[in-house]
Amino acid sequence: MSSQLNPFEISQRQLDEAAAILGLSPAMHAFLRVPMRELHFSIPVLMDDGSYQTFQGFRVQYNDARGPAKGGIRFHPDETIDTVRALSAWMTWKTAVVDIPLGGGKGGVICDPKGMSPGELERLSRGYMRKVAHFIGPDKDVPAPDVNTTPDVMAWMMDEYEVITGRHMPGVITGKPVHLFGSLGRGDATARGGIYTVREAANLLGLDLQNAAVAIQGFGNVGGWAAILSHQMGMKVVAVSDLSGGFYSPDGLDIPAIAEHVQRNPRHLIEGYTAAGVKQISNPELLELPVDLLFPAALENVITAENADRIKAKIVGELANGPTTPEADQVLFKKGIYIIPDFLCNAGGVTVSYFEQVQNAYNFYWPIEEVQTRLEAKMTTAFRAVHEMAQAHRVHNRLAAYLVSVKRVADAVATRGWVK
Ligand code: NAD
After folding, report:
1. Is the separation of the CB atoms in 11 and 86 below 8 Å?
2. In the chain, helix, strand, coil percent, each to 5?
3. 10 pLDDT more than 90
4. 89-138, pLDDT tens digit by residue?
5. Are 97 and 347 in contact (CB under 8 A)?
6. pLDDT tens across 311-320, in order?
7. Which atom of ligand 1 is nearest to the CA of 219?
8. Cβ < 6 Å from ligand 1: which residues?
9. Which DSSP letter does residue 30 get?
């Protein structure tokens, strides 16, 4: 059962399936199954009470054949090296599927940031950078925000790197605040990119998105923006949910009002919102609504063998990472539900991170329209490549996305002459 495997073993199994179809040589397959490099280190931090605490940190560079490694840094109490390894593998496939000239990496620190003061977090962030500074860089490995790491954390890390190197080097890290060398358009990039892929899928299926019924699980950075953008594009968002529960109205919800409510709510949740004709629903109920589009945008493993048969959406746009289990994948495929797999659907974020790096390198910053036009081109091209691969091999879209990515990475590795 996949649920008993650790995430790194799951990522290896996914690769194994693609490698068999692509006919990779045993040497290439073995090389792509493991990270190229890993750094494990300890970070001593002066705490506010005068004591010192030592935190365990990691940075994994999974593969850089197609360009510098790219991937976020997570601060989490349950962080493990195998989670970081798996996420670095998935970053490798994600940057390859959108065909940006980057590889895959990931980092993490075992810590509980919710229990740390801003000063302690700043010292931890700067300490992390001191440990990785000689291992990363704009032409080696470029970190980014991830779970519990914010634009402020990115700014501290960038500043520490510039102190160490004595040079202006904002491209060492992305997801920085816009006023400190960040890119316009990063905030909604993941949701926007996902919606571009959904638009392509709808065209293929002959589905008119005007007034199409949409359900969205999660109202955070990604789900909240997905709701706002879907509403702006003329779709009818009939259901939204978050940690606190969900709301449903078959006539469509007032998304700007809910977004404003979430802004005002101290916990940034939809709880407490009321409006005529809106009924409360649970998260599992939301997933099974009769809608045209379903965006899981919160958690992993929410569409499982248990509920897959009751999913009624025509298109599932996986904005969250890993929302569908492998068993559920098979069920949805047989039912003819069109899945846009996570590392394609949510690749808009890393794509605009790449644009941030490009702007940093040129020290010239683009208007928002340029960011969005370029994002649209990347996402639609990637969608078409995956769709064509799925047709050619008669496989579901997730496997097709792996086939596209793994082939691109393997071709780069082979052409470099590392492994044939
Ligand atoms: P976030 O923390 O901003 O929002 C998460 C949302 O999920 C919140 O609305 C929260 O209330 C909700 N949630 C948490 N637990 C829940 C539960 N048990 N049931 C229902 N809802 C629950 O996070 P985010 O940045 O929006 O990320 C959401 C997903 O998208 C994650 O899987 C993340 O890995 C993925 N993702 C995010 C980005 C990005 O750019 N932020 C990029 C790629 C993938």
Report:
1. yes
2. 50, 20, 35
3. no
4. 999 999 999 999 999 999 999 999 999 999 999 999 999 999 999 999 99
5. yes
6. 999 999 999 9
7. 9
8. 190, 217-223, 241-243, 269, 283, 297-299, 319-321, 346, 349
9. H
Those residues whose C-beta lies under 8 Å from the C-beta of residue 208, and which sit 6 or more positions away, are 202
Distance CA 220, CA 275 (A): 21
Residue nearest to atom 13 of ligand 1 (CA): 243
Q: Please give the distance, rounded to the nearest whole angstrom, from the Cα atom of residue 283 to the centre of ligand 1.
A: 13
Which residue is associated with the tokens 């793994």? 406
Point out the catalytic residue in the list 106, 236, 314, 378. 106
Can you tell me which atom of ligand 1 is nearest the CA of 322? 32
Coil, strand, or helix at residue 120? helix
Whether 106 sits among the annotated catalytic residues: the reply is: yes
pLDDT tens string 368-405: 999 999 999 999 999 999 999 999 999 999 999 999 99
Going from the Cα of 115 to the center of ligand 1, the distance in angstroms, rounded, reads 20
> Token digits for 146?
């991830």
Is there a contact between 121 and 143 (Cβ–Cβ < 8 Å)? no
How far, in Å, CA of 186 to CA of 191, rounded?
A: 10
